[in-house]
């Protein structure tokens, strides 16, 4: 009887652990920004559920040799720091979670979403 109770308790604990969400490695939601293509067309790029805690050079604008992106909009559940330079360098600004779109005057090349528990 004791073995059966022990096994049942262990199984119940294991099932509970599986039901809990894993550690949050990503912000949930979308981060968008605008950029101009080599042909002069304005495009919008989206990071969906972006990775948290590491620097992300943004698509099409993440190199200091191309025009920067602009007008970032953080629609994720995590605050983000946006950087004017690539590899999270240069001037920086914080955008809050679920914030309003930033002005088109705010240039961006790279971002870092807050790591969990920060």
Task: Report a brief summary of the structure.
By secondary structure, this protein is α+β, with helices and mostly antiparallel strands.
Give a verbal description of the structure.
- The structure is a single chain.
- The chain has one domain (29-113): Sandwich (Gamma-B Crystallin, domain 1), CATH 2.60.20.
- The chain contains one helix and eight strands; from the N terminus they run H-E-E-E-E-E-E-E-E.
- It has one helix at 2-19, and strands spanning 29-36, 42-48, 55-57, 69-76, 80-83, 92-95, 107-108, 110-113.
- Strands 2-1-4-7 form a four-stranded antiparallel sheet, with no helix packed on it. It has a four-stranded antiparallel sheet with strand order 3-8-5-6, with no helix packed on it.
- 22% of the residues are buried.
Low-confidence stretches: 4-23
Structural class: alpha+beta
Give me the strand/helix succession. Answer: HEEEEEEEE
Shape: globular
Number of domains: 1
CATH architecture: Sandwich
CATH top-level class: Mainly Beta
Helix content: 10-25%
Strand segment count? 8
Within the largest sheet, what's the order of strands? 2-1-4-7
Output mean pLDDT.
85
Radius of gyration: 20 Å
Strand content: 25-35%
Tell me the span between the first and last alpha carbons. Answer: 46 Å
Instruction: Note the main sheet.
Output: 4 strands, antiparallel
CATH fold node name: Gamma-B Crystallin, domain 1
CATH superfamily: Crystallins
What descriptive keywords fit this protein?
single chain, 118 residues, alpha+beta, Gamma-B Crystallin, domain 1, four-stranded antiparallel beta sheet, 1 helix, globular, signal
């Amino acid at each position: 009887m004791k073995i059966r109770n022990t096994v049942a308790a262990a199984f119940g604990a294991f099932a509970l652990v599986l039901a809990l969400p894993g550690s949050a490695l990503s912000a949930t939601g979308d981060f968008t920004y605008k950029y101009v293509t080599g042909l002069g067309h304005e495009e919008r790029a989206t990071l969906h559920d972006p990775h948290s805690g590491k620097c992300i050079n943004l698509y099409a604008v993440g190199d200091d040799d191309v025009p920067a992106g602009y007008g970032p909009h953080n629609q994720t559940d995590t605050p983000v720091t946006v950087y004017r330079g690539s590899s999270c360098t240069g001037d920086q600004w914080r955008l809050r979670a679920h914030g309003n779109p930033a002005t088109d005057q705010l240039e961006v090349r790279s971002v870092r979403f807050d790591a969990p528990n920060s």
